[in-house]
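SEQUENCE-TO-STRUCTURE ENTRY
===========================
Question of interest: how does this chain fold, as expressed in backbone structure tokens?
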Amino acid sequence: MSDWQEAEQRVERAQRLFESQRWAEALTELEAAIAINPNNASWHYHRGVILDQLGQYDRAVEAYQTADEIEADDALTLAALGVNLLRVGRHASALDVFERLASIDPDHEPAYCHRICAYHNLDQHEKAEEMFYLAQQIDPDCPDAFFFMGQSLIARQQDDRALFCWTRALELDPTYPAAHWCIAQIHRRRGDSVQARQHYLAELRLDAGNLDLLTELAEMLLEAGQLAAAAEKCRQIMELDPDWAEPHVLLGRLALLEDRPAEAMDHFVRADRLDSDCPDLAGLMGEACYRLGRYGRAVGHFRRQLDRFEDDASALMGLGSSLLELDRPDEAAERFARLAELEPDSLEAQYSLAICCLRRRQFADAIDHCRAAIAIRGDYLLAWHKLALCFMHLGRLDEARRALARADEIAPGDQAIRRLSRRLVWRRLWARLGGS
């Protein structure tokens, strides 16, 4: 048997293996044939198709490029090459390929609709819309065109138009991948957990083992207060992949919501062992430690979170609060001041700065921060209480009385306000008697 005959037989075996979806074996046979005869464009093309099935898109690009070098301007090769260039993030190169394809075959609709995707990823959204209308002229019922156009629209925060496009893609192809998922995300942002859940579940029926999708559904259920359903999804994820960290993070968050910080910490520790790079994990561990009264450990976790995300508002608040509990008001004030810079309308930042100033007996500064908190929310009882206290420390008793009167309007009968009012009565009496 000659080498050429062996190559042809290997190609035939590769074809049978391909039809049986035995991709790896088919690839081995085809590559052996190519080693004998590397100049057959069709074999390189089919090698690319197999690599597509194996999810090896970078290698598929190389296979299609080789096929194109041997036999230029084949429409099937160019279409497959362009799609794989999109998959590996080489969007500008994909545009070049699809432009070549359109020049060879002006009526080849994928040459237009896939350019919508490329232009979207290059943030050239006007060009994306132009390609959409060109694609529509060739095939008004292409689900790809509608899906890709939806992606461009959502990037421009045009939710209603994106929703229309993704809904249309599903009308044209009820199994279109990720369309239900995209629609679910819009409903989730709008706070419609019922509609979001329906679309998440519809996507799961098409892609049952998608851990990212399951995790996002569990997060949405947690945010919607459907804690039992969220916990059930977390257990489902752990059954599919015991080494997936996210369900442990979510179960920890759920435990925090139910005021079970020790249990939350157990979940966070497991998640940390599985994947220490979970974005919010260090901050959540800090929160659990804070609630457990382990302020020193909380400081360490919050610092770790801020090492990665220096302007994380929650971690700044947690670190400042932990330092304050450790009686380190100067260090705490630095964090609260940074938080106030990032979020000028942060009530918690201004009130916490007032507490730091009180601890340092800087009463005038504390008054300024109390007033800043009250400017943000006029009925904030704690700020009125501390404002009155500061006035008393400075001997400004009339102003203290007015602050307490306002506090009593906000919360009639509040015990802390009553106690401070009694102290004020004695201070005013003492002042009338000539006391200092």
